[in-house]
Design brief:
With about 325 residues, the chain is of the alpha/beta class. The protein has helices at about 50-55, 80-85, 100-110, 120-125, 145-155, 175-190, 200-205, 225-230, 280-285, 300-315; strands at about 5-15, 25-35, 40-45, 65-70, 75, 85-90, 160-165, 190-195, 210-215, 215-225, 235-240, 255-260, 265-270, 290-300. It folds into three domains: about 1-85 and about 160-230 and about 300-319, 3-Layer(aba) Sandwich (Rossmann fold); about 100-150, no CATH class; about 235-300, Alpha-Beta Plaits, CATH 3.30.70. The protein contains ten helices and 14 strands. The strands form three sheets. Strands 6-7-8-3-9-10 form a six-stranded mixed β-sheet, with helices on both faces. Strands 2-1-4-5 form a four-stranded antiparallel β-sheet. Helix 3 runs parallel beside helix 5 (about 145-155). It is elongated.
Amino acid sequence: MQPIISVQQLSKTYAPRNAGGQPFQALKDVSLDIRKGEIFALLGPNGAGKTTLISVICGIVTPTSGAVVADGFDIQKQFRQARDRIGLVPQELTTDQFESVWNTVSFSRGLWGKPANPALIEKILRDLSLWDKKDNRIRTLSGGMKRRVMIAKALSHEPQILFLDEPTAGVDVELRQDMWNLVRKLRAEGTTIILTTHYIQEAEEMADRIGVISKGSLILVEDKAILMRKLGKKQLSIHLHDALDSVPEALATHKLTLGANGTELVFTYDSQADRTGITRLLQDVSAAGIRYNDLATKQSSLEEIFVSLVRNDSNGAKP
């Protein structure tokens, strides 16, 4: 199956802002294929290049080199056809503050040359819990509701691809859950979703695949489940019968940490290794005369994996 978005050797360098300044390379030879109907999460620290990459794919920023194809159309050579297939929800809440919700969403549809479709606009507003606000002026809405309006505008021309750039920034927990329910529904209807987020737990819950970008380079793209399995470490927690003041010297080789006010020994291990070291650890714990009540294991979270990847990239190490 052909990817719905294909990014090939994309680079973007900005000219220096001041005389004598240095040019800034925001993207460095990025190549990426997005599958039709998936939720793809792009993670990276501030300034990593997430928004620049989205802006280039959407035709807002011109790349220095490379190519982007959206549903078979080149974003530079066939801009109108390619952009017609893309909906974008930017980070900034940019819309006419004195217009009503209904009018601003309807106007956005008209900008794409689409005929009026009140039934569709009503459906979008209802799906986003905006129907009761349809006659309200944008300036009277909360930040979370304004972000919902931005999503409604992006959906108004029925795009096949939807970009969400930090879509839940400033949104309360209840609205966030509603928004993600909508994302799931859109995916179920065949819309391809690409999102950036600082809420890594949301990417872990929602995404089919994860991409990690750091300093303009795409350092990893992987199915979420495979990424968790390949790079995720596990922790064994040994719940002690009696609290310890410190890790005994006899257990120093295992590189344990002491937690839960001294009532827990934590051992981090690679679940994919031939030998995890757990058997030897438990033998040494018993030999040291330490009694324990229970054992529990925990998989590393996506956030821990992400932090490790970015740290390794900063240090020049390969993931």
